[in-house]
Amino acid sequence: MVVLLAVFSVCALSLGTPYVPPYRLVAAVLEGDTTLAGIVVSELRVPRLLLALVAGACLGAAGLVLQEALRNPLAVPEMLGVSSGAALGVAAPLVLAFSLPAAVQPLLAIGGAALGGGLTLLVAGIGRSPSAVLLTGAAVAAALQAALLVLMVMADQLDLQLIYRYLLGSLSARTWDDVTGLWPWLLVAVPALVLCAPVLSVLRLGDEDAEALGVRAQRARLAALAVAVVLIAPVTAVCGPVAWVGFLAPHLSRWFDPAAGAVRWLPWSAAWGAVVVVVADVPARLVLAPVETPAGAWTALLGVPAGVALMRSGGRRRAAAWRTPAASAGVREQLSGPRRTASGVADEVPPAGAPHHAHRGEPGPGGPTSPPLGTIRTEDVR
Amino acid sequence: MTRRFTALAALAVICAAAEVVAGRGMSPGVVWDVLNGGGDATERHIVFQLRLPRLLVALGAGACLAVAGLVLQSALRNPLAGPEVTGVTPGAVLGAVTATALGLAGWDSPLAVVLAACAGGCAGAALLWLLAGRGRGDPAQTAVHGVLVSSVLGGLTAMVLLVEPGELGSVVQWLVGTTEGRVWEHWHLLWPWALLWGTAAWLLAGPLTLLRCGDDIALAAGLSARRARTLALICAVALTAGAVAAVGALGFIGLLVPHLAVAVFGADLRRSLPGAALTGAVVVCGADATAQLSSRLLATALDSGRLTVPVGALTACLGAALLLLVVRRTPSRTF
């Protein structure tokens, strides 16, 4: 992962027009504004890279928080209406030609995101089945998207390009100003994130067990949503909702370390999110040069299939892991329920549903009628 | 039953009348004059060359989408299946946009657009089928997968649009679904297509009713379930593609109108398929009339001529609200 990040960072800094060879990068940054290459690297490419890292990390972490809080591997900002809400909050003043100071934009985005996410959870009922929550979220997102499209219909042709690009999530033409605008929000979000991580691992046990351990499940969920909103909204305000990073990054972190808990996954998820956005931004800049494609389109194209594949293979690996010990272990677990250590975090015991998933993902005539993707079930978030 | 059909037909006439008089710039009295053979040249042109085709296209597209949705829901035994959440509509949009961008089809050759939309719709449906397995499993899950597929296709569409920025302006309206600026040409293309596939769907009504009851019962009755399902899916994709090529991606019509139609006309598809067609036509037409009226009101309120509410925005908002109700009411029931 470190290698991947390094390679693509260097690519991001050196490729493009003008091409700056990697060995000259340091010199170019140090020379600053004396040469053309120096200006391009230090004023355009470095902030863009930083922004990609920060945005990816925020989105990845937010995705993990949402997935863990709702115990639902598909609970991502896109599916809950959070992203669409934030985008609407930013795009509306743009089109309606209200001139606003840049500092207000994140606030609007936060308002929109909270509206979208809150509406979804309110209508779906927080404790209901995951699929119902997701469908509700999809409906809310669709309604918000329709509002966005109405705005776009009203926009001028010139604005239209900008808005459309923004709505997909694009890092083009972002400078130091945009990066510096993010810091205050990160200062708020990171401590909140650290605080809510342990609660997430308790929430995974299920509402009843969490209540027994003294966590108010509903309140904890709302808090998690609030944290996710604070993470997502400022990023959205700056570079648009880069799609599906919050879906892919948590699954990557789980896939590489399936035995860890939410606390361990959180930094990994942030790191993977950063990698994903940096990696996606390189083809976004270069593939169809001189036209820049939005990074969000790439993350959507590659992220969704990759995420689904990871979700399935993760399920299969778990199932395989639980086929090796005697099946009686699974039965015993079903009888006794998850054991817990004194710290209140579950040991690595299989959820009661795990034995069923041995058949998952092998569709074919005569196969069992279990859904190929049992991961949407609540008890199966590992 | 006849009474219900009559009532619905009356509703359709009322909606059509509303649609004809709802537009900007003419009072209802003038429209009446024109229809009686009066009025000056401009007024005549507006009514006969713009409003009538628009009305007909709205009716036809609504009927197509509703029938496609009902066929999908019956064939897959999934109350949450609709062209929008099975990847058919986004696929069709992608096909049409791609064909236009590559120069294979222009907005001046609508037939090519329809064919491209068809191919795209099939591709979208196939993608979902690969992802979700053969229509088995929990209906809500299939719908969730459909949303995932739709987002992938949306990403592709976005790429195409940004590579061909010239198309963006004309396509944005079409992405949300609109009946603005539809002329006779669209109608001439839509009605034979709709009639052909609509008839095919109606001929399939019997087998589809059996499929709704489950594969075992269908097999016991001597129906080859797989063949019937394949035919039905082809029908649904073709109908959706025609509607999408005519008015764009109207949201939620194909998902929700079938529920309404089944509630009113019962589950026997020989009756509820035509019923769904009528209902869909009424809904889209009414929504379009409402959209035009609200555009008019907003224009006077905000004093700007730029604001038009596309009908798709209205149906998406309405549909989202209704979908929430459906999801709340039927958490685990299949039919």
UniProtKB/TrEMBL annotation, chain A:
Primary location class: membrane
SUPFAM superfamilies: ABC transporter involved in vitamin B12 uptake, BtuC
Bilayer topology term: Multi-pass membrane protein
Localization terms from the record: Cell membrane
Alphabetical UniProt keywords: Cell membrane, Membrane, Transmembrane, Transmembrane helix, Transport
Residue stretches of biased makeup (Low complexity): 321-330
Region span, Disordered: 321-382
Keyword Transport annotated: yes
Domain of life the protein comes from: Bacteria
Source organism of this protein record: Streptomyces cathayae
Keyword Cell membrane set for record: yes
Family: Belongs to the binding-protein-dependent transport system permease family. FecCD subfamily.
Transmembrane spans: 49-67, 79-100, 106-126, 133-155, 182-203, 224-247, 295-313
Name of the protein this chain belongs to: Iron ABC transporter permease
From TrEMBL, chain B:
Keyword set, alphabetical order: Cell membrane, Membrane, Transmembrane, Transmembrane helix, Transport
Cell location: Cell membrane
Pfam families given in the database record: FecCD
InterPro entries for this protein: ABC_BtuC-like (IPR037294), ABC_transptr_permease_BtuC (IPR000522)
Primary residence: membrane
Membrane topology: Multi-pass membrane protein
TM ranges: 55-73, 85-105, 111-131, 143-163, 190-211, 231-257, 307-327
Name of the protein this chain belongs to: Iron ABC transporter permease
Family to which this protein belongs: Belongs to the binding-protein-dependent transport system permease family. FecCD subfamily.
